[in-house]
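Recall the central idea of this unit: under ordinary conditions, the amino acid sequence of a chain determines the structure it adopts. In this exercise we apply that idea directly, starting from the sequence alone.
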Amino acid sequence: MLQLGVETLEDRWDITDDEHDILSHTGRGNRIHVLTLDKALADDVCERIHNDPRMKFAKLIRPRQTNVRQTVEEIDAMARETVHSRLLIIDARKITLTKLQWAYNKIVGYNRRDLNRLCYIILIGDGPGNLFRAGQALDVFVLHLAGHRVDFHPAVFFYDPLLHYEPDEIERSGVDFEFVIPDKIPRRLVPHFKQDEDMRVDKIRRYFRAIGKEDEVRKKRLRKLRHLYKERMIEQFPNHADQLKAWLSRKGIRLASEKLHLYPLYFEDWVHKLMLKAAEG
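Accordingly, the structure predicted from this sequence is:
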């Protein structure tokens, strides 16, 4: 079992944010921060990791609040605490990024010196705003991924179709901090499940992670999800069969200098791999 974080310089001296940015934090423990405003996504990430026997000793830290405004404040308050973790799993979807950008900037700053050595970041997010309107080439992801590279320096980016809403698929409140995380699946996906406009994201996530089910049931549902992804991608990108095959694989697809994966395919494998790399330093 890996040891948890030990005392850091921050515990002994009053260090300013600017000074903190240049420090390395070698006392990181077997901890994972899951940073999102979305309870359904946090539940999915945490249950997947918790139920992977390879990760049974990992400590998961996630927001406890459910109110959007309070959760934003809680994540901001977690920023310094992240220097004790080996892995940060960050929800980087567009509709909540503006509310969390300040906190995320602090988190990246505090961990900057250790990123991709003692600490790794996994991003889970949606696609570019013009994903379904920019033709039939996957290159539309390149600038999107490059922007995240600049802001987060992630080890892995997972595109999650359940997080991606086209402009006409999302209801906006227009009042700051009264924003509600969408809980219905994007309308374009409804025909692939049931003809039900009220199909909820949390219900879909629970079904496909199949916690408490036999291994064969979990594998069967994962195959169903993979098949659904494949159907959708063939519809959208019919002339890129080789790229689509790579996108569905453990290695993911390389677009220019960036890599792209599909959540939750092989998600637990990547969590395990990065935790081991961070422990080795």
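DSSP finds eleven helices and seven strands in the chain.
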